[in-house]
Amino acid sequence: MRSRAVLTGTHFLSGDLACAEGAIAAGCRFFGGYPITPATEIAERMSRRLVEVGGVYIQMEDEIGSLAAVIGASYTGKKAMTATSGPGFSLMQENIGLAVMTEAPLVIVNIMRGGPSTGQPTMPGQQDVMQAKWGSHGDYEIIALAPSSVQEMFDLTIDCFNLAESYRVPVMLLADEIIGHMSERVKIPAPEEITIVDRKKPKGPPNEYQPFKPDDDLVPPMGCFGEGYRFHATGLTHDEKGAPKTVSVEEQTKLVRRLCDKIRKNTHKIVRVQEVMLEDAEVAILAYGITSRAALSAVRKARKEGIKAGLLRLITIWPFPTELVAKMADHVTAIVVPEMNYGQIVREVERAAKTTPVSLLSKLGEEPHRPSEIITAMRKALQ
Amino acid sequence: MKQTERMTQHPLTKYLRSERMPHIWCEGCGNGILLNSFLTALDELKVDLDKIVVVSGIGCIGRAAGYVNVDSFHTTHGRAIAFATGVKLANPDLQVVVISGDGDLFAIGGNHFIHAARRNIDIKVICANNFNYGMTGGQYGPTTPLEAWTTTTPYGNIEHPFNLVHLAAASGAVYVARWTALHVRRLKDSIKKSLQKEGFSFIEVISPCPTIFDRYNKRGTAVDVMKWFKLISNVKHGHDPAKTEITKSQIMVGEFVDVERPSYGRLLRDMTKKVQEKLKEKKAK
Amino acid sequence: MVLSKKLWRTPLDTEKISLPKAEITIQPDLCKGCDFCIEFCPRKVLEKSDQLNKRGIYPPKVADESKCTICGFCAAICPDFAISVTEKKCKEGCEDEK
């Protein structure tokens, strides 16, 4: 029987719709959101589809409430998500911190548009990549993936849920307006071909459960509300039992380090990149999202013109694959970073590349980079 | 520890995380009374403690969630209701109670409050109203009376306060009551009633803040404040919530709203059932 | 009292029925000294202790347990879960304990 949850087959969908289908296929049964261009179509699709599969769609009063509701749903054991764009993402920063602190597995989709402020609602941007990592206060780590096709909007949304469940962390899908709104062919596999990861459950008796006591992988098993564990979770610094520890240096150090280390120490397992013709490359392009499509075309064209070009496409933006970039930097003479912002990920690249020159190819506004512009930048970098 | 041993004698001990007692609240603070009434209500109703979730926001009363020995969550400032909305909708079998303060629920969280009430989310909101931000040292908030002295109204408050029960009623709450911390029995009964009722319930608890607000405003000791509550409170069930403003000479208390309206959860479940049946029919064809 | 003697007779079974006796449990170290229980006890059963507790305040003590009608208001209004009242369990009626 064909499952209503997984629409197996080949479809022609926009990125936003593919994302919604990916979420439902991944087991998402709660969506709390607020309409915002260019992410509204995700909410629209979810409002229709979640009811079909017995899930919950709620349109909250703002993005602050949206993420709060999603954290609440996650704590009952449901897979939950929200989708937004820049201004809404700004409002969510407060509860991103709460989700990190209380280790709530959930997915936040950000279809990036032009900022700051209301900026250019219908235009693409990659201006939130630093905010995704640093937007909330305090030290923390999250995971962020960047799709570059509609198919990846489907596939990576599933990966986002799996990563969130594995590491008990908010995971972000950082797409942009073009990926969100353009339509492409999407292959939705059969349900049995889709890998689904669920959060670890506690094994011992409920009265001995310590909600924030991690296993060796630094991730604590998660009991959920209503399962008899009767535990407390708080945004305050807490011990392994969940009790507030607001003046303990020891507990603060232990907790903050663990929250960061559960991602940092697993970076090698989390990080995914695509390497194209990097083996003998003299000049490398580092790109992600929509920009990487032009970059790929630029690499192919440049090769024809005799330039030894290669591409490192980041599928995982956060945690940043510093080691991989450092290794690549050792083998090339220059790195070009095309971004639809005024220089964000380029800073991470510079940090990783050390002495290898890194140049930014910034683009703001309507148009994504053209391959020719990237080739010109490569030539310039090689001079 | 001796103290924990002795605590086991108290009949409400099983509802408390005894190892976290004594709580952080000052002597004479109404928060402890509110918690006491809430736990007594749970006890009398024999609520399944595995199926109740207590959520609180930030502030003195925000610590309440951490003291109750059930599933509990201490959210960011103002977001308790939004969080509780997610919990209730994602698992309708859970009884969800929000215990928070006037500043948390009506200033920073005001928007969540009115919308949850409008949607008639099946959650119970109990608000400790002490007329100021006590935890940060006594700044004025959305319920501070005109002319009151707080650390940020050094010349007296010039903002008009909210009438919380009126706000709740106007927003669509199906059960609205107000009691002072002295009306412990009636408060407990109201909590019991709200727990047995479907829909968005709101109970305001007028609470003494002897260390901060009452001291700044020369209201005397906690006992003096409670005696004053006794003197000026006027029980009027079913009174028009619009006419229940708290004044210097009167605190109108009682059950002001008790109506029936289908909750969001119920409407959602009904709609889901209909949609799924239609889909099945379509498939059969 | 004179009036009541005139208007009401003493119930015939007064001798047979033993009134329930209260057992008031105070945990002095949990008390923060708000005095609500002392102040609002309708029968004035409690008074301030002359012994400081470990917080440095004077908790309540029972002045006259026999006056208590087990209304439980002291327990209900205690913000600190420091006082509770139960009915004394007496095998042969509590009167004999005196």
What share of the residues of chain A does DSSP label as strand, in percent?
15-25%
Find the structural class of chain A using helix and strand composition: alpha/beta
CATH architecture classification of chain C: 2-Layer Sandwich
**Termini Cα gap of chain A:** 61 Å
Beta-strand segment tally of chain C = 4
Unreliable spans of chain A: none
Total domains of chain A, how many? Answer: 2
Average pLDDT level of chain C: 86
Give a description of the structure.
The complex is a heterotrimer of chains A (383), B (285) and C (98). Chain A is an alpha/beta fold and 383 residues long. Chain A contains 13 helices and 16 strands. In chain A, strand 7, helix 6 (150-167) and strand 8 form a beta-alpha-beta unit. Chain A is globular and about 70 Å long. Chain B is α/β, with parallel strands linked by helices and 285 residues long. In chain B, the strands form 2 sheets. Chain B has an 8-stranded mixed beta sheet, sandwiched between helices. Residues 1-8 of chain B have low confidence and may be disordered. Chain C has one domain: Alpha-Beta Plaits (2-Layer Sandwich), CATH 3.30.70. Chain C contains 3 helices and 4 strands; from the N terminus they run αβαββαβ. In chain C, the strands form 2 sheets. A two-stranded antiparallel sheet of chain C has the order 1-4. In chain C, strands 2-3 form a two-stranded antiparallel ribbon. Chains in contact: A-B, B-C. The A-B interface holds A 4, 29-30, 32, 51-52, 54, 56, 58, 60-62, 64-66, 68-78, 80, 94-95, 97-98, 102, 225-236, 243-244 and B 17, 19-20, 49-51, 53, 55, 63, 65-66, 69-76, 78-79, 82-91, 93-94, 111-112, 115, 264, 268, 271-272, 275-276, 279.
